[in-house]
Design brief:
20 helices; globular; 14% strand; 6-stranded parallel sheet; Rossmann fold; 15 strands
Length: 487
């Protein structure tokens, strides 16, 4: 196929006049690859157009494209956008009725859909695994591919089984995509996909977003941080913005302070009901709410072009998280501010988070034992579990972490809050291996250290991020607070 064919597809279905960056080279490699040899790993900034790199080949290749996506809300948004462009796409997840899941899967097998989006956990379902092997799959696209790696900042155990899933569907041509992957994570992604390094071409788009201005202010007091927020909100009054918080209680405190100043805003965090979170996200994307106060639960799938600022009211836990979150600003190419408000207390908070995020093997064993009496646990609720494990220490969130990991590893189904939690598998070996868990704790601490070095270091902030992600030799941006201070 010629380059003009892919350009015609771009113009016909997506309405863009030309490709950006490495998009066309990536697409040509996929559609011209002989004998499925065009495997590719794409590292492209948030908002750089990663999805087009597999969506256009999906329309041009004979057969279907299976897309592995980590979040239900993310796949819903992407499928809705494709359908608006008359592209036959669908998804299968837990929000879909059994009848519709069967109908959509049958439609994909019959070629009625060119793209099928699923989470990797869908392969746990025997009926899906059996049926998908009958499909003619031309391309496997792994979105948010950093979830493959235990070195990554958003590890999903089922992502690490992708080599098994690839073999199940005939080892098709594969493209993996992410905005954030250090060299270690890049190597791990390729290995977990069951590929050899010489089989994969890595496309580095770098982190060039010249319209993003990276700034930091060291502010210790709440009223100082509030002042910086108010100044930014007023400066970008014609656009939208996100203010990220590490702690829900801090978010709620600043929400009240902004409300007292009559600043309208939305609030989004992981303890809100799913329906409420979806409604708030829709309002933000539709422009009905221009300012969002959120924890890092808010982010994936936020494809809004006019976000003029992203403020971090507290230091994030890693450079990966920080970079992914600031990448939501300025997708329309307009000037945008990424402001980090730092105080010494933030470091202590993140050190606590690292501890909460890393229960040891003994904690997992005790929790598994308590959950074995599911009827009693469901009746007694979360406070009972917290009392047994944390001695009612409300600032210890190891319980939430451990329940999340048991769910990710397929050990439990349901929830304590829903009074329907049950054990469906043995405790995963990885959660009983203190050496593995200790290594993860050490890596998380090193990531936090790298974030501290970003805050306290010298030289261009963009160069610092580029070096971290393995893009040495980046040119100083001339636009961040450090570059300006050096002039």
């Amino acid at each position: 196929m010629t380059q003009s064919a892919s350009l015609t597809t771009l113009q016909e279905y997506f309405g863009y006049a030309a490709f950006r960056g490495a998009q066309q080279a990536i697409i040509q490699r996929l559609i011209e690859a002989p004998n499925r040899s065009g495997h590719s790993l794409i590292l492209m900034p948030t908002g750089g157009g990663k999805s087009l790199c597999y969506q256009i080949p999906a329309l041009m290749l004979e057969g279907g494209t299976l897309v592995i996506s980590p979040l239900i809300a993310l796949m819903q948004d992407q499928v809705d956008a494709l359908r608006r462009r008359n592209i036959p796409a669908t998804f299968i997840n837990s929000t879909v009725s059994a009848e519709d899941r069967e109908s959509r899967l049958r439609g994909f097998l019959e070629g009625k859909y060119k793209l099928l989006y699923v989470t990797p956990e869908r392969f746990r379902r025997a009926e899906f695994a059996a049926a998908i092997t009958q499909a003619t799959i031309a391309l496997l696209a792994v979105d948010e591919a950093h979830c493959v790696s235990e070195w990554g900042h958003d590890f999903r155990p089922d992502y690490s089984r992708l080599a098994e899933f690839r073999a199940m569907i005939g080892n098709p041509l594969t493209i993996a995509l992410t905005a954030t992957a250090t060299p270690e994570v890049q190597r791990d992604i390729i290995e977990k996909l069951g590929l050899q390094p010489d089989q994969v071409q890595i496309f580095h788009q770098g982190i060039e977003r010249p319209n993003l201005r990276l700034e930091m202010e060291e502010l210790d007091r709440d009223h100082e941080k509030l002042g910086a927020m108010m100044e930014t909100i007023q400066r970008f009054s014609n656009g939208s913005g996100i203010i990220y918080f590490s702690l829900i209680q801090t978010l709620e405190k600043f929400s009240q302070m902004l409300a007292d100043k009559r600043i309208r805003h939305g609030v989004y965090h992981g303890k809100m009901r799913a329906q409420q979170r979806r409604a708030i996200q829709r309002e933000f994307l539709a422009g009905q709410a221009h300012l969002m106060l959120a924890t890092n639960a808010f982010g994936m799938g936020i494809d809004k072009p006019d976000i003029r600022f992203v403020i971090h009211a507290e230091v994030p836990s890693s450079v990966e998280s920080y970079y992914q979150e600031i990448g939501r600003a300025g997708r329309d190419g307009g000037e945008s501010l990424c402001l980090l408000l730092y105080s010494q207390d933030d470091l202590a908070t993140q050190m606590e988070f690292v501890k909460w995020s890393n229960p040891n093997a003994g904690f997992y064993s005790r929790l598994y034992g308590l959950l074995s009496d599911a009827e009693h646990t469901n009746r007694m609720g979360m406070e009972y579990l917290r009392e047994q494990l944390n001695y009612r220490n409300r600032r210890d969130f190891r319980l939430e972490t451990a329940l999340g990991m048991l769910d990710r590893y397929g050990v439990i189904e349901g929830s304590v809050e829903g009074r329907d939690l049950r054990i469906v598998a043995d405790l995963a070996d990885e959660l009983l291996d203190d050496e593995t868990l200790s290594n993860k704790l050490r890596r998380d601490n090193m990531k936090l250290l790298s974030m501290v070095q970003y805050v306290r270091g010298e030289g261009c902030r963009r160069v610092h991020i580029s070096d971290y992600f393995g893009f040495p030799g980046a040119t100083p941006c001339g636009n961040c607070d450090r570059c300006n201070a050096a002039e």
